[in-house]
């Protein structure tokens, strides 16, 4: 049996799209595991670690609550290519019923409650065993989105003192005057609580905007620049950095002075990841975070 796993952000409409997806996939003979609210990157990592045939994230990312959509991942945890997505769209438009299975061969569905814990354990493996954030005060704005459970939990496990906002989703308040598209909230909270850093997520927690202890915004290009120089110094940077057509020229110029290779690709994290994989680079990203 083929296996699909499904996660979502906190939009109310996700609770109607999820059963429709489950119905369609099990009618095609697939077994389905659902996780509930989970960051997009968590869904991608679990698709790979659970050896699922596909992962589906129900989200409209940084858009308002009334929008929704799907992000599709293959068994390698990477987003499906444009070509494959177009084939799927054609099958949907054709209202093809040939793939429906015999009633005796219907797939089963099971809800798993430990998706966020599994994701956190995968992330913790990226840190040295002696790494900790003790003495660091961090303000988190989870945007009332998919990261409202995993993000505070991970940073607390690493020893940080965490002040969390945007952690009370109600199905309608995702990205609503909070999160990465509304950085004013994290800036004021950092100054209010005298934190060392602020981190703000979008609705499905696959982009971040940060600010320093003075409330100054640190965008995606600046984060990439800091990581690139740090990783080069620690000899863990592989090859260079992938940016996009929207990456600031200042980033390109900075990396040139640091003697770090830099290549651009089309806008979209899918294209960044594809080029990173092609060149075997381990760092890339977008200005949007």
UniProtKB/TrEMBL annotation:
Residues 4-96, 117-215, 219-289 form the Alpha-D-phosphohexomutase alpha/beta/alpha domain. SUPFAM superfamilies: Phosphoglucomutase, first 3 domains. One of its GO terms (cellular component) is cytosol. Its cofactor is Mg(2+). Keywords: Phosphoprotein. One of its GO terms (molecular function) is phosphoglucosamine mutase activity. The keyword Transport does not apply. GO terms for biological process: carbohydrate metabolic process; peptidoglycan biosynthetic process; UDP-N-acetylglucosamine biosynthetic process. Belongs to the phosphohexose mutase family. This is Alpha-D-phosphohexomutase alpha/beta/alpha domain-containing protein.
């Amino acid at each position: 049996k083929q296996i699909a796993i499904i996660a979502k952000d906190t939009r109310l409409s996700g609770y109607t799209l999820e059963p429709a997806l489950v119905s369609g996939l099990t009618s095609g003979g697939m077994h389905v595991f659902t996780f509930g609210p989970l960051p997009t990157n968590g869904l991608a990592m679990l698709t790979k670690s659970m050896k699922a045939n596909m992962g589906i994230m129900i989200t409209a990312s940084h858009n308002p609550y009334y929008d929704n959509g799907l992000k599709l991942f293959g068994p390698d945890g990477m987003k499906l290519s444009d070509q494959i997505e177009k084939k799927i769209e054609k099958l949907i438009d054709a209202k093809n019923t040939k793939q429906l299975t015999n009633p005796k061969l219907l797939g089963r569905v099971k809800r798993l409650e430990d998706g966020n814990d599994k994701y956190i354990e995968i992330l913790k493996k990226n840190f040295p065993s002696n790494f900790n954030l003790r003495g660091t005060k961090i303000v988190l704005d989870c945007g009332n989105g998919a990261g409202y459970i995993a993000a505070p939990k991970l940073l607390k496990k690493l020893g940080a003192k965490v002040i969390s906002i945007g952690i009370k989703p109600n199905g309608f308040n995702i990205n609503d005057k909070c999160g990465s598209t509304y950085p004013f909230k994290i800036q004021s909270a950092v100054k209010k609580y005298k934190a060392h850093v602020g981190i703000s997520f979008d609705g499905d927690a696959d982009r971040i905007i940060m600010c320093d202890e003075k409330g100054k915004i640190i965008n995606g290009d600046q984060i990439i620049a800091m990581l690139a120089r740090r990783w080069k110094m620690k000899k863990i940077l592989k090859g260079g950095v992938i940016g996009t057509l929207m990456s600031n020229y200042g980033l390109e110029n900075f990396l040139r002075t640091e003697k770090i290779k830099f290549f651009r690709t089309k806008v979209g994290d899918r294209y960044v990841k594809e080029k990173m994989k092609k060149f075997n680079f381990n760092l890339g990203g977008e200005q949007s975070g």
